[in-house]
Specification:
3-stranded antiparallel beta sheet, 2 helices, 5-stranded antiparallel beta sheet, 8 strands, binds zinc ion, extended, alpha+beta
């Protein structure tokens, strides 16, 4: 499984990240353990001021779980300042926009979910919809009083 570990040099407070691809790691807890062990081994052989800590660990999607973006704009459009194209994922259906040479970013309505894993998006969208409905119901109840 692929994951990104963010490390920090304790003496200086500067951080950096490293991407790993370890077949023995199958979930986030194991990824955290892996990073903690790597840092423990590292700290055992360096000078005190070089010691590091793990800031955070996040899973990265593997090649089979990334979005399959298909361009939906017939021609490149322009905001007047920058050109852009619109996209839709063939697998999960979320939409995104690519401005200039920047990578594709998801559209505003998906900003509330972690959309980095394509296979998780349908469930996350259902959860998001449920939360929005609940919020609306609560709003309506307040209005009725
Ligand atoms: Zn997708």
């Amino acid at each position: 499984m692929k994951f990104r570990a963010v490390y920090l040099t304790i003496a200086t407070g500067s951080s950096y990240s490293e991407d790993e691809d370890r077949s023995e790691v199958t979930d986030l807890n194991q990824a955290r353990d892996w990073a903690e062990r790597a840092i423990k081994d590292f700290n055992a052989v360096v000078l005190p001021h070089e010691r590091q800590g793990v800031v955070r660990v996040e899973l990265l999607p593997d090649a089979s779980d990334t979005h399959d973006w298909v361009k939906t704009s017939l021609e490149t459009r322009s905001t007047g300042i920058v050109t852009y194209d619109t996209f839709k994922c063939n697998k999960c259906g979320i939409t995104g926009t690519k401005y200039g040479s920047a990578p594709i970013g998801v559209d505003e309505e998906y900003k509330g979910i972690d959309w980095s894993f394509c296979s998780r998006v349908p469930q996350l969208l259902k959860d998001l919809e449920k939360r929005q409905k609940k919020r609306e119901r609560r709003k309506n109840r307040v209005r009725m009083r």
